[in-house]
Write a structure and sequence with these properties.
Length: 381
Amino acid sequence: MSGLNNHNLSYGLTLKSRSLFDRSREWELRDSAGYSLPAVPDALKVIYNLDSRHDVTATDFAGYIQDAWRISASAGYFNINGGLRTSYSTFNHELLVSPRISIGFIPDRAPRWAFRFATGLYYQSPFYREARMPLTDADGNTIIAINHDIKSQRSIHFIAGSDYTFRAFDRPFKLSAEAYYKALGNLIPYEIENLKLVYSGVNAGSGSAMGIDMKLFGQFVPGSDSWLSFSLMKSSQTLNGVKVPLPSDRRYSVALFFTDYFPKIPRLKFSLRGIFNDGLPITAPRSSRDEGYFRAPAYKRVDVGFAYALLSPDEKDGVRTHRSGLAGAFKSVWLGLDIFNLLDISNVSGYYWVTDVNDIQYAVPNYLTRRQINVRVSVEF
């Protein structure tokens, strides 16, 4: 890193070598009372089996150069960051060049406002998991092949945002808002099976993602941070000629974190956490969203917590004083009680799929942990 006038130049090089040893065997047998699927009178067959045996070694080279340029003008203060990143991998012999730039501006006449804009070309380099390409032989067995011709997934970002700082209740606050659009290319389709990501192993899609994020951040109580956030998102992907949402598509999200002290008991601290998210798209095992999907129920959760300072920092006129004896070995000691999932809501974590003899599948939800009580002790030395 070096400085030149109002410029701050940084650069770096990275060399990384990776080795992977894979021996995977999977199979699935579906059974019920008196029969198994597929139903063959004189044989026992499985629905699905997979075999993968690979040793993969790759070397990655990467480098970047970036300049941070600060300009004070009559209109206000500008902060410009521009850079270039490049990389090369022996895994798929792909050379990537990724330019990007961001501009920040604080107007001189309205210093409480800050505006920013960023754009760039970004890549997500594939490695083993994304390159695993399932192939089916004549007997219906699934064999994993490695696609060494796979390309990096690409995204062109456009992000615009602003921050507004103000004071309310004699406390500092900041309101942030950001809008984005991402043009996606060379996508490697994947599906979520329970908690497992299953990639197709080929670049077979394009799409986009857009949305807005808003957040109010501040200190309703001195020394305790609280915030409220709200997000909207819409994503789409063209998969086998059908437009579907991305597997990570959450159309809305609301989150809250609030802390406070009890007026007559300053050592006792209270916290409230809440979240309300849209459900993710769900598909049946070994099928894709273009064949059909549904959304899981929304995720809802409220947590509360109490923390009591058994030993808190002693300060006088803003200066910390020293304790004597054993207490002097600790900066603070907190005893906490948390109630997770206060409202005892049954949130869906995934689905267990049941198939009847007519090959009709039924999705039976699996649930996350319900209400839970946790006791903790935090010690700072």
